[in-house]
Amino acid sequence: MKNTVVAKRYAEALYSVASERNQVDSVEKELGSILDVFNSHPELMNVLEHPGISIDAKKKQVAELFQGRVSDLVLNFLNLLFDRRRQDAIVEIGATYVELADAARGRIKAEVESAVQLSDEELNALKSKLGVNGKQVEFAAKVNPSLIGGLKVRIGDRVLDYSVTGQLERFRQTLKY
């Protein structure tokens, strides 16, 4: 991520204003819908990042797309990004904003990969194990048969690898030395 520092600064500023106005949840949803539009239409993002197109034309395009669909706060924020020539950081800003909102709510997002489909009971047990210090855990579970057995949990940058494949790989590494 080339814009990590920039994204953090802008996301923190937007979060600060949104929390003052009690609009944290609505801004998060609006940013999510904007990012969905950008992800489903990558050519739009190419136009918005194109250096040959004027800032005013880009701002007009964004206003036409999102006027009435998002709050004035979010629309003004997008215009600020264009004025500061930071439109290339929109995706990272959105992701960082969600992280800030989750941290304020005491929510952790985790990805769980398992060799077989986990039952609801197993997921609930895993949630209770990971949900320490009053944090609430949200899972995105998926099946990955290449793990052979066990599971892999990703929480932010941390990976907890309890898979058979991971254990075999660690064992192979110890045999090298």
Task: Record keyword descriptors for this entry.
single chain; Peroxidase, domain 1; four-stranded mixed β-sheet; alpha+beta; 2 domains; 177 residues
Report on the structure:
Belongs to the ATPase delta chain family. Keywords: ATP synthesis, Cell membrane, CF(1), Hydrogen ion transport, Ion transport, Membrane, Transport. This is ATP synthase subunit delta. This protein is of the alpha+beta class and 177 residues long. It has two domains: 4-103, Peroxidase, domain 1; 107-176, no CATH class. The chain is built from eight helices and four strands; from the N terminus they run ααααααβαβββα. The protein has helices at 4-20, 24-40, 42-49, 55-66, 72-83, 90-105, 120-130, 164-176, and strands spanning 107-114, 136-143, 151-155, 158-161. It has a four-stranded mixed beta sheet with strand order 2-1-3-4. Strand 3 and strand 4 (158-161) form a beta hairpin. Helix 1 packs across helix 6, helix 2 (24-40) packs across helix 3 and helix 4 (55-66) runs antiparallel to helix 5. The mean pLDDT is 91.
